[in-house]
# Entry
Amino acid sequence: MNKPRLNIGIVGYGFMGRTHSNAFRRVPNFFDVPYEPVLKAICGRNQARAEAFQQTWGYESVETDWRKLVGRRDIDVIDIASPNDTHAEVAIAAAQAGKAVLCEKPLGRNAAESKAIVAAAEKAGVPNMVWYNYRRVPAVRLAKELIGEGRLGRVFHYRAKFLQDWTISKDLPQGGEALWRLDAAVAGSGVTGDLLAHCIDTAIWLNGFIDSVAAVTETFIKERKHNLTGKIQEVGIDDASTFLARFANGSLGNFEATRYALGHKALYTLEINGENASIIWDLEDLHRLQYFDYRDEGKLRGWRSIHITDGDHPYMKHWWVPGLQIGYEHTFVHQAADFLCGLAEGNVPGPSFLDGLATDYVTDAVLTAAKSSAWEKVGNPQ
Ligand code: SOE
# Structure
């Protein structure tokens, strides 16, 4: 039986445009999704680049103005994969046009922008989702299941870090294509909104809301050439950000992100210590979950390194045979699958725009706390 077609228009042909396009291309080959996702239009400012992207990914059409894309009656879903400074404007217009809206993380450059996006989506009643893709790493989802089953008991500690090293050179310019993450006006913040946002989203999902934070941030290279103006300009982003947190459930959090950890390209790790068991996960070894359970028989008690490749592990029955691994891009395929199934059932799963706002409240509080040198309360999205 032919499935109903769902026409997708993606804004942005950079790194994230590729991950999202790949997800919608591959999802029907591996998951029994209720729609046939159609790559209807790719939208980007540069016509030649948009056309090249269209060829590579098999889009039906090209737009260079996102307003035209949002206005098209033949588009069902607007998927925003462009730099952070475009998220609010496009998401709000797309919601007002009655489209389902997907948005790359972080939702807004700050909580104020995210609040406006949430309000527009709620007013229009449109399905929405933020691409916090690491929730859909099978090992991280298994961690969620183990916590949900109560295996950890009361949680005492949540620890997460996201370490990179790609901005250490003082000669690296800021701004423009590929380097907009260094431009505060476009990105909103540095590692707090880019990397810690991932850690915070997963943390809230696994361990509940964060109540208050104390933080330090640093900008190690104070001035860089700006690619768009050609001038040496002050750097407005945080290069490193570390914060302590109190979760609403009484546990303590310890978070760190930096782009100055030489040797680390994308080391996202998290550890949770409960009264009965502990969990460790590491993005560089993403198909493993480390699990320690104190209730195991004493002489065999120790860390188990679970290889998350079996058919009864989350998402894995859709891929290869037990023992064979998947990777980063599959997390986006999983999110596309969950979105399409949820859309058909009228219940799109998180992270919703409201979840995106919850994370932005924490990142705002972290940046405020770094300035005030005091503990700051986190805004409540509810
Ligand atoms: C930054 O280098 C970056 O690409 C982030 O923007 C992504 O969200 C993260 O998943 C990997 O690192």
